[in-house]
UniProtKB/TrEMBL annotation:
Gene3D superfamilies: 1.20.1280.50
Superkingdom of this protein's organism: Eukaryota
Biological classification of the source: Eukaryota, Fungi, Dikarya, Ascomycota, Pezizomycotina
Residue stretches in coiled coil: none
Cited PANTHER family: F-BOX DOMAIN PROTEIN (AFU_ORTHOLOGUE AFUA_4G00200), F-BOX DOMAIN PROTEIN (AFU_ORTHOLOGUE AFUA_4G00200)-RELATED
SUPFAM superfamilies membership: F-box domain, RNI-like
Positions of the F-box domain: 2-47
Name under which the protein is recorded: F-box domain-containing protein
Cross-referenced InterPro entries: F-box-like_dom_sf (IPR036047), F-box_dom (IPR001810)
Species in which this protein is naturally found: Imshaugia aleurites
Length: 468
């Protein structure tokens, strides 16, 4: 093989090996010294390490050895850091099924802690002068079974984030800035020491891609009768998340992916109105709840630059019940949001509110607005396995909504895509009607939504044809 490429310059070989797999690169390194130098760069271009609990992780020690060589350290462009349990296969079988039947069993696992060896190895991340992509992943199981409860879990995750970002922010000679940042299962707790630091704000300003998947610990570690009622730190995190994570990155951000493990946007409330992304090309929202007109107006304000819009299991709020009166206690001149309530508070009063938003209006707003949108991906939950299909528009998963409709919850909302929830005296306008009328109205609305969605797809296809 080496004799077949005796006179090819390194630029050509670089293009050839850029499409090779890891196994092919390992074999090509044995052919010649020239191949070895080029393949080594691609072998160490993207690395994955796992931070284990109370153990010496081999991958972390291996990273320490790699960073000791300056040539290899300069070859690293992307790094993926996995928390304890991310790389472990999921447990299946009869024993795993028995564990699911005992969600409130005593926790026997010790709390996660970073050892001194891991901390020293992560401190060597300051040597990654050419790092441009960083992915941090936490395990969902660690949120369920971590010893020490919520304080132990949050302390470990906060310590891990600090141990990763502190050396990266202290890099002296930067040849490239961090352009890609993705955090999976980010705890719904603010880290002001990190997010308010000047170095972290500068890091966000240079990002082109930001992905945040938010995890709410109390949904996993509290008894079932507390589910759906978020604690004050979680509510504060969702309220402050746009200012802490999105506003510094707004000027250069091109790809934004936001999601959570529970329906968000209305409760817990997230307000994007004061943030504008002039170069945003791709937007992905997961489990987001549309309830007010400003949300659609905010999306339409990015129609000129937006090329891709993905809505994964998003829902349109139909009506809501709260145990406190709907006041403008959040400081914004917008009504219809619940005030903050927490476990143990005594609720007084009950307010029922209907929301006027419809998916057909949402889709037709994009159809009638001149935009550069080339892809609109609307992913929904399929309920056809256990009841007749109802069209293309569906709400979030039933399991996630049950937590918010629990009889002990102080705040709950229902969605337009659930027949069983319309067996009451309320419809969209609050007037009394029979069950048959409500079902007929629902089917008519679903057909209208489907028609509007197909019109949007046809409009996007026509615009793409004209551009090509």
């Amino acid at each position: 093989m080496a004799k077949s490429f005796p006179s090819l310059p390194n630029e050509i070989l670089d293009k050839i090996f850029s499409f090779s797999t890891k196994k092919e690169l390992l074999q090509a390194r044995l052919v010649s010294h020239n191949f070895c130098a080029i393949c080594t760069v691609y072998l160490f271009k993207y690395l994955t390490i796992e931070v284990k609990a109370n153990k010496k992780a081999k991958s972390v020690r291996a990273l320490h050895g790699i960073l000791a060589t300056k040539y290899l350290a300069h070859s690293i462009r992307g790094l993926e850091v996995n928390g304890p349990g991310v790389c472990q296969p999921q447990r299946r079988g009869f024993r795993a099924w028995l564990r699911m039947l005992k969600p409130l069993r005593p926790v026997k696992h010790p709390p996660f802690k970073l050892t001194d060896t891991m901390r020293d190895s992560l401190d060597d991340l300051r040597k990654l002068e050419r790092l441009c992509a960083l992915t941090i992943r936490f395990c969902e199981e660690s949120c369920r079974y971590t010893g020490g409860g919520i304080p132990g879990l949050l302390a470990f995750r906060g310590d891990m984030l600090g141990s990763i970002f502190t050396p990266l922010l202290s890099r002296r000679s930067l040849e490239t800035h961090l352009e890609y940042l993705c955090i999976s299962r980010l705890q719904s707790r603010s880290e002001p020491t990190l997010t308010n630091s000047a170095g972290f704000i500068d890091l966000l300003r240079n990002l082109h891609t930001l992905g945040l998947s938010i995890q709410t610990p109390e949904l996993y570690l509290l008894p079932p009768w507390h589910k759906g009622v978020l604690w004050k730190p979680s509510l504060n995190f969702y309220n402050m998340m746009p200012d802490e994570w999105l506003l510094p990155a707004s000027q250069n951000l091109k790809h934004l992916h936001l999601g959570a493990d529970l329906p968000w946007g209305w409760y817990p409330k997230v307000d994007f109105r004061h943030i504008r992304f002039p170069h945003l090309e791709c937007l992905t929202l997961g489990l987001f709840t549309f309830s007010h007109d400003w949300q659609l107006e905010w999306l339409l304000s990015h129609a000129e630059s937006l090329r891709s819009l993905r809505l994964h299991h998003c829902s349109m709020l139909a009506f809501a019940d709260t145990t406190r009166r709907l006041l403008d206690s959040d400081g914004y001149p917008v009504s219809g949001y619940p005030v903050s309530v927490y476990p143990g508070t005594i609720a007084s009063g009950r307010t029922h509110r209907c929301f006027e938003g419809q998916w057909c209006c949402f889709f037709r707003a994009f159809t009638g607005t001149p935009s550069g949108l080339r892809l609109c991906n609307f992913i929904y939950t399929d309920f056809s396995q256990w009841r007749p299909p109802k069209g293309i528009v569906h709400a979030a998963c039933d399991e996630e909504l049950v937590e918010l409709r629990h009889k002990f919850c102080y705040s709950a909302y229902t969605l337009k895509d659930h027949f069983t929830l319309f067996n009451s005296s309320f419809n969209y306008t609050g007037e009394d009607s029979t069950l048959e009328d409500r079902v007929a109205r629902e089917l008519s609305q679903l057909r209208e939504d489907e028609k509007a969605y197909l019109e949007l797809m046809n409009t996007i296809e026509e615009r793409n044809t004209i551009r090509s």
